[in-house]
Design goal:
The protein is α+β, with helices and mostly antiparallel strands and 563 residues long. It has 27 helices and ten strands. The longest helix is centred in the middle third of the chain and has 20 residues.
Length: 563
């Protein structure tokens, strides 16, 4: 089950075909039971086509849409005329050279110069000007030509044929089972050189698959269709009945939550507030809860909002959620004569000011780093990389644990569910073991072992060029494990939100064993620059936890005064 495919490189002019064959081979090896017999036979038949025919079909599958002009299919790397490869595809029922076309499809395929002579008489009879922009011409002709027609009926028999892919739905199903989503296009995999990165080996077993049943693939496709309708402007009220029922599959449930969030947004924009409330309440997305409460406020249903907000307050929240909820509760309390929740008192954020000569080159952060550097207290520009990197090295095996819906193929930089709300819950026992290493002192050996063994392997938390031996050893020697645990636990409350906002610089005090203050983090702000909300939340957290951190405001020296 775990035969790892190789990767193509750009030295092969048909590298895209090699990667497509990797996708199809992977799906046949790992998901064959989710395909019906006709689909498996069709994919096997793809492998039996000649190389030029497979390459031409791959090129068409990668492009947008299912209709192509035969005279625009030009790929010299095929080694044979495109017409020869196309004939084989027609014989094998991969493509159809005689599709019927709507007028919209015709206008997408042909230029204004090619279409204008065809419809000139019709437009003239209807009283339209001889010269119209393409979009206006199409609008003018739609009512006169409501039905689809063969190409010859539109443009005559002398034109080259239009080609239609016959099995695009199957290729989309394969793409879904390989990527785990339909957001990524074929070109995200087929047109990239994968060999330049090292990927963490993940064990693929039937139990670790996101899709266990064909019906689950169908469920995803149904949700994707709902999202496409919303994106196309179909009213939310019409899409709502088509939203599939909840699933026992946790991964698919999170996808459904995001669909309901978007449907609720669209319903609210369209003035259908009751539907928006229904959609926000039916899903479990964290953003939906705040949106539901704010909408209830606007509808003056304050008592209902108070009940929901009070229940939600008892749950574990990220800083952004807690901040938004506190503001809502305070407003509702004043309207309902209730006691507002006590305001959280944060210790003040430490700050200091430096006046420095403005550098000719380099950033303000580098200028401060160089100014503060001492041989016995080195300063490094790490921003979001150090804490994230230490976390990624400590929790490497947990991050790449093959839980269902996390990995679909061998080329993942990280788990597909990294920023979903149940990312931690589905790995809780494994994360507990990581934190136990911080408590028993074995964390250093674990971090260093992963640092040595995984050097250069992709990880969503580790930026290898920044995590040098020097920085890593200073960090492990100066940052207490209790601080690391506090930082990591906050990171896991909301990975999407908390992965950024860390201070720019870290200053180590490796020789300061007396006071215990062996490191400090420094956020740098140049003239006119202000703290962002996510930076403020981290700084408030540091202050509340007793972690040394400050903001350095920089002013540039006035050279005229200096002279």
């Amino acid at each position: 089950m775990d035969n790892r495919p190789g990767t193509a490189d750009f030295d092969n002019p048909l590298y895209y075909l090699e990667n497509m064959e990797t996708v199809i081979g992977w799906v046949l090896s790992h998901h064959a039971d989710l395909l019906i017999r006709e689909e498996r036979d069709r994919l096997s038949a793809f492998r039996e086509l000649s190389v030029p025919a497979r390459a031409l079909l791959t090129r068409m599958v990668m492009r947008t849409g299912e209709l192509f002009r035969a005279d625009k299919l030009r790929y010299p790397e095929l080694g044979v005329p495109e017409s020869v490869a196309l004939e084989e595809l027609v014989t094998g029922n991969w493509v159809d050279t005689g599709p019927v076309l709507t007028i919209d499809q015709l206008f997408r395929l042909y230029t204004l110069g090619e279409l204008r002579p065809v419809f000139a008489a019709v437009l003239q009879e209807a009283g339209w000007p001889k010269i119209l922009p393409k979009g206006h011409m199409l609008e003018a002709l739609r009512q006169s030509f409501p039905d689809a027609r063969p190409l010859a009926d539109w443009l005559g028999t002398a034109v080259n044929p239009v080609v239609c892919i016959n099995h695009m739905a199957l290729f989309d199903r394969v793409r879904l089972m390989f990527f785990g989503n339909l957001r990524q296009s074929w070109s995200d995999f087929v047109l990239v050189e994968l060999g330049h990165q090292r990927y963490e080996p993940v064990t693929f077993t039937p139990d670790s698959r996101a899709f266990q049943l064909r019906s689950e693939v169908d469920l995803y496709l149904a949700m994707h269709q709902c999202r496409e309708w919303l994106d196309e402007g179909v009213p939310a009220r019409e899409v709502w009945p088509e939203v599939p029922a909840p699933s026992d599959n946790a991964w698919l449930s999170s996808r459904r939550d995001r669909l309901l969030l978007e449907l609720g947004r669209q319903a609210e924009r369209q003035g259908d507030r009751e539907l928006a409330l229904q959609a926000f309440g039916a899903g479990g997305h964290r953003e939906a809860r705040l949106k539901q409460l704010r909408l209830l406020e606007r509808m003056k249903r304050h008592r209902e909002a108070w009940g929901i907000a009070s229940r939600w307050q008892a749950q574990q929240l990220s800083d952004a959620e807690a901040q938004g909820l506190a503001r809502i509760l305070k407003r509702l309390a004043s309207r309902l004569d209730e006691t507002p929740p006590p305001a959280s008192m944060q210790p003040p954020i430490r700050e200091f000011t430096l006046t420095l000569p403005k550098p000719a080159l380099g950033s303000v952060e580098v200028a401060v780093q160089q100014h503060l550097w001492r041989d016995d207290t080195p300063v490094f520009y790490v921003e979001n990389t150090l804490v994230n990197g230490l976390f990624g090295l400590l929790c490497w095996q947990t991050i790449f644990e093959p839980v269902p819906g996390a990995f679909f193929h061998p080329f993942h930089v990280g788990p597909a569910d990294l920023t979903r709300e149940d990312f931690v819950a589905r790995r809780q026992a494994s994360f507990d073991r990581c934190f136990a290493c911080l408590q028993d002192g074995s964390y250093r050996d674990r971090i260093l072992a992963n640092y040595r063994a995984r050097q250069g392997t992709t990880n969503p938390f580790v930026i290898w060029p920044v995590i040098t031996d020097e920085v890593l050893n200073l960090a492990l020697g100066c940052i207490p494990p209790a601080d690391l645990e506090r930082l990591f636990r906050r990171l896991l409350l909301n990975i999407r939100e908390h992965r950024s906002g860390f201070p720019d610089l870290i200053r180590f005090h490796p020789g300061n064993t007396a006071s215990g203050r062996r490191y400090e983090m420094i956020e740098v702000k140049g003239p006119g620059d202000r703290l962002q909300d996510h930076q403020i939340r981290w700084l408030e957290f540091f202050a509340g936890e007793g972690i040394s951190a400050s903001v350095c405001y920089v002013r540039w020296q006035d050279n005229r005064v200096m002279e």
